[in-house]
Amino acid sequence: MKIGVVEDDFSLSNLLRKFLSKEGYSVKHFSTAESLFESLFSYKESFDLIILDVMLPGVDGFEAVSYLRERGVKVPILLLTALSEEDDKVKGLDSGADDYLTKPFSLKELSARIRALLRRHSLRKEKGIYLTKEGAVVDGREVKLTTKEKALLELLLSKKGEVVGKEELFLKVWKGRGSKRIVDVYVKYLRDKLGDRIETVWGVGYRLVD
């Protein structure tokens, strides 16, 4: 895995390079966003993840993230900054960053954030449906689900390709409480989020298909 680190603080960038190299990553350092752009777009260099400081000379981190996303760069971007206000965090995420780490930070936390971002990005590139903590990834697209939606999808996934009876769904997801019509309602909710992945087998139940 190759990581691009954009940081104008030499001591911090040197620390990051040494730490990430020990973690098994190939690391390339840039002191400005412009030098990263040149590497990506002029020399066609690629990275699996980019760590980007916000307070950079010239183009700052927020502007850099927006520019990278506009140019079609899809790799995970982790922002590093001394700015800790909530508005700054929101601005960073709205610009297209995947995560935000406030200085000072622990190297262990940085390593965990990187692993999580790489894992999530790997799931996005795969076809199919995968459950996540927040919901699911559907053909690389992250989808947020409610607790019941996720429980319903999890049951259908466990029997993918098989018809699951409405009675079974009702008993296992809703514990038999309320009206069985709730199953139909939540299947519709899932279809709105997943597309035509759930087939209706009339008089029997539902089936999750590729």
CATH topology of the largest domain: Rossmann fold
Q: Please list the strands of the largest sheet in the order they lie side by side.
A: 2-1-3-4-5
- Give the ordered list of helices and strands: EHEHEHEHEHEEEHEHHEE
Query: What is the CATH-assigned architecture of the largest domain?
Result: 3-Layer(aba) Sandwich
| Strands, total number | 11
Helical stretch tally = 8
Description:
The structure is a single chain. By secondary structure, the protein is α/β, with parallel strands linked by helices. The chain folds into two domains: 123 residues, Rossmann fold (3-Layer(aba) Sandwich); 80 residues, Winged helix-like DNA-binding domain superfamily/Winged helix DNA-binding domain (Arc Repressor Mutant, subunit A, Orthogonal Bundle). 45% of the residues lie in helices and 22% in strands. The strands form three sheets. Strands 2-1-3-4-5 form a five-stranded parallel beta sheet, with helices on both faces. The chain has a three-stranded antiparallel beta sheet with strand order 6-7-8, with helices on one face. Helix 3 links the parallel strand 3 and strand 4. The chain is elongated.
